[in-house]
Specification:
The protein is of the alpha+beta class. The chain contains 20 helices and 37 strands. Among the domains are: about 170 residues, Rossmann fold (3-Layer(aba) Sandwich), CATH 3.40.50.300; about 90 residues, Elongation Factor Tu (Ef-tu), domain 3 (Beta Barrel), CATH 2.40.30; about 100 residues, Translation initiation factor IF- 2, domain 3 (Rossmann fold); about 100 residues, Elongation Factor Tu (Ef-tu), domain 3 (Beta Barrel). α1 crosses α2, α3 crosses α8 and α11 runs parallel beside α12. It starts with a helix and ends with a strand.
Length: about 750
């Protein structure tokens, strides 16, 4: 039997009853101290306790019942701390007064000793008549006086400074930041690091004293040891930056931002292409949108900003980002194909973002188009058409011919009027990065969607970890402009690095402020990476014990734009199975460089380029070191390539095939081969160069190989079914009539992901 409730309670240093209560609250069925605790039970308990601590991370209550906010202690706690501090100061003042009194006494004793010496000298000078008494020794008197004082001083000092070590456990309030090193946590509780590591292990968290753990886990450990865990919220420059954004002007009406969503090949980009009167879809690899495109279009209904999102399953994260930056979602559904998985996913993203939905039922001119069926399927997803008594506008359109497009634009404009969209125009611009890439000639290029304020050439911008002065602003028609206002989607140049798609951007006052923000973000990123590395390297100890280690395919990914990179990484991480997984060693936007190639050599990684190529220096390293490199322009092919490489890592499956079986009729002794079994082949064929097993009463008693196979005194390599033969088994001398000799073969089959 494994660990019991009693054992686990002993490890956690809590009562059995208290542990059982916690486990039952976590939904576990344990009721006795003898019940077994499995690793899954520990994980369930940890998950429940972490959930309970989430509230504590925001608002922790002290022993007295006084609420302590995440930024610090309550006024009651502060008052208590002040009272404690005043008490300490009073004690120090009393000790100081005592010391002063002792110094005064010491001075008085010294004066008395000097006075006594003077009196003795005076007596000598008057030549006092000696008596029978022993003369007074002045030196001894002085020495005794000084020694007496010293003795008293020592007694006083010992009485003041002699403290006894506390014998009882003292419960303390331990303040815990958002992340903390295990060693630092141990110091704050005045315990050994090993004790903290032990508690973490008992909760299923593998960490050394040098590892970082999150706030919730740290609070859990602190409370298990017996102290109070107090979550503190660290200074957040992001919040301070948000508070600095103040606009003095009154908000004015702004153009709506419309995101086009739907299943792959349902005509999203074709519809937008008709509206823009361009041929964007012709330039997409395989006719599939590989990244988000943002365009501002002047229509008879006013200015509209459109965001085109990919429809393939791998681009879920990109679609989610589109929904979170938009006002209206145009859901494109093919009338001849109906609702598909990505259609449902788009609906979920739109609902989660709380944005309005307008449905464009496309391809109405094709055979098999059934508008009413599409409406019925959408109604089943809580999108009821207006003409069916619902509130969702649904417009039949043909993106190729343009039928119904004007009606669609009118419905979008009507929806925008109802929303009463507004923004501030005067002041520093802020918004979100829709897309980003590293251009060989222009450097870092980012597509900004401005949400408030006005962006100008020369503005100092911070976006993620990138900063820089805006050198150029290009609108969706490719024209250079000087300024851009709310709802505008523009390309900007001037950032020192490529921001991530989805990052916020903000115009700041000066470079000092910009660098402080970037430094804060970089530190936060490092902390997150440390936590992630710990989780990846340690894994779940209780789940992996005794299991076969997973095969890991190290991958370096370089892409043309940030959004595509994000989508590819998400898709690659989803490829993992219980036998193999993908580990992203490095990823980024831009060509494959020398540093990428050197990293691949160091960590034994493959390199994948999506719409990018390796430079000459990188090519030389890749060729000389035989680094696996593949280029792709369509994500389906990329994923298939990685799956094949993952399958190649797996050990082949070894299958055994019984080739033939012979029954032993008689046993002979041969001076050359020892025991020889006279057999009859009853199944299949017997081959000399294959391994054999000896079976007695259908139980395997020996496994080995043949050292002879003869038929009519001739050595042969094979004896077929129904024929008799003589078989000698190497290093085996216990063959008996009635035994069976089974000849088998081992075949390897490649595993597939």
């Amino acid at each position: 039997m494994g660990i019991t409730v009693k054992d686990f309670a002993k490890t956690l240093k809590i009562a059995d009853k208290a542990l059982i209560e916690r486990m039952q609250k976590a939904g576990l069925s344990h009721s006795k101290s003898s019940d077994e605790v499995t690793p899954k039970d520990k994980q369930a308990l940890l998950k429940f306790l972490k959930g309970a601590k989430t509230t504590a991370s925001k608002s922790v209550t002290s022993e007295s019942g006084v609420k302590v906010t995440s930024r610090g202690k309550s006024s009651s706690t502060t008052s208590s701390s002040k009272s404690y501090s005043d008490n300490i100061e009073a004690k120090r003042a009393a000790a100081s007064e005592q010391l002063k009194e002792q110094q005064i006494k010491r001075e008085e004793q010294l004066k008395a000793a000097v006075k006594q010496k003077q009196e003795i000298k005076k007596a000598k000078s008057k030549k006092i008549q000696q008596t029978s008494e022993k003369p007074v020794d002045v030196k001894d008197q002085l020495s005794s006086a000084v020694n007496a004082y010293k003795k008293k001083e020592v007694i006083f000092e010992e009485s003041q400074h002699q403290f006894e070590a506390p014998k009882e456990f003292i419960k303390k309030d331990i303040e815990i930041p958002e992340t903390i090193q295990v060693g630092d946590l141990a110091k704050s509780m005045a315990v050994k690091g090993g004790e903290v590591v032990k508690n973490l292990m008992s909760l299923g968290v593998v960490a050394t004293i040098n590892d970082f753990i999150d706030q919730e886990t740290a609070i859990l450990v602190v409370e298990e040891i017996g102290h109070n865990g107090i979550a503190i919220k660290e200074e957040n420059i992001e919040e301070d930056l948000a508070n600095l954004i103040k606009y003095k002007d009154k908000p004015k009406s702004r153009p709506p931002v419309i995101t086009v969503m739907g299943h792959v090949d349902h005509g999203k980009t074709t519809l937008l292409d008709f509206i823009r009167k361009t041929k964007v879809v012709d330039g997409e690899a395989g006719g599939i949108t590989q990244h988000i495109g943002a365009y501002q279009v002047e229509t008879s209904k006013g200015t509209l900003t459109f965001i085109d999102t990919p429809g393939h399953a791998a681009f879920s994260s990109m679609r989610a980002r589109g929904a979170n930056t938009t006002d209206i979602v145009v859901l494109v559904v093919a009338a001849n194909d109906g609702i598909k998985p990505q259609t449902e996913e788009a609906i979920n993203h739109a609902k989660a973002a709380g944005v309005s939905i307008v449905v464009a039922i496309n391809k109405i001119d094709l055979d098999g188009a059934d508008i009413d069926k599409v409406k019925g399927d959408l109604a089943a997803k809580d999108l009821t058409p207006e003409d069916w008594g619902g509130n969702i506008q649904m417009v039949p359109v043909s993106a190729l011919k343009g039928d119904g497009v004007d009606d669609l634009l009118e419905r979008i404009s009507l929806e925008a009027e109802i929303l009463e969209l507004q923004a501030h125009y005067d002041g520093a611009a802020q918004g979100v990065v829709i897309e980003s890439e590293l251009d060989k000639f222009r450097g870092s290029v980012a597509t900004f969607l401005i949400q408030n304020g006005t962006l100008k050439v020369g503005d100092l911008v911070v976006s993620g970890n990138a900063i820089g002065k805006i050198k150029s602003i290009v609108d969706s028609d490719g024209q250079k402009i000087k300024i851009a206002g709310p709802s505008a989607a523009v390309e900007v140049l001037g950032l020192n690095s490529v921001p991530n798609a989805g990052d916020q951007f903000q115009v700041v006052k000066n470079e000092k402020q910009a660098r402080e923000i970037v430094e804060f973000r970089e530190n936060k990123e490092k902390e997150k990476k440390l936590l992630k590395q710990k989780d990846e390297s340690a894994g779940d100890l209780f789940e992996t014990l005794g299991q076969e280690a997973k095969k890991v395919l190290n991958v370096i990914v370089k892409t043309d734009v940030g959004g595509t990179c994000e989508a590819i990484l998400a898709a690659l991480n989803d490829l993992g199975t219980d036998k193999a997984k993908v580990k992203i060693v490095s990823s980024g936007v831009g060509g494959i460089s020398e540093s990428d190639a050197n990293l691949a050599v160091a960590v034994d990684s493959i390199i994948i380029g999506f719409n990018v190529r390796a430079d000459n220096t990188a090519k030389k390293i890749i060729e000389s070191e035989s680094i696996p490199l593949s280029y792709h322009s369509i994500i389906y092919e990329l994923l298939d390539d990685v799956k094949a490489r993952m399958s190649g890592l797996l050990d082949p499956i070894v299958k055994e095939v019984i080739v033939g079986t012979a029954e032993v009729l008689e046993v002979f002794n041969s001076p050359k081969f020892g025991q020889v079994a006279g057999c009859n082949v009853v199944e299949g064929n017997v081959l000399r160069n294959k391994p054999v097993r000896v079976l007695r009463d259908e139980i395997v008693i020996f496994e080995g190989e043949l050292n002879s196979l003869r038929r009519f005194k001739e050595d042969v390599n094979e004896v077929k079914n129904g024929n008799e033969c003589g078989m000698g088994i190497k290093n085996y001398k216990d063959i008996k009539p009635g035994d069976k000799i089974e000849v088998f073969d081992r075949k390897e089959e490649a595993q597939e992901i």
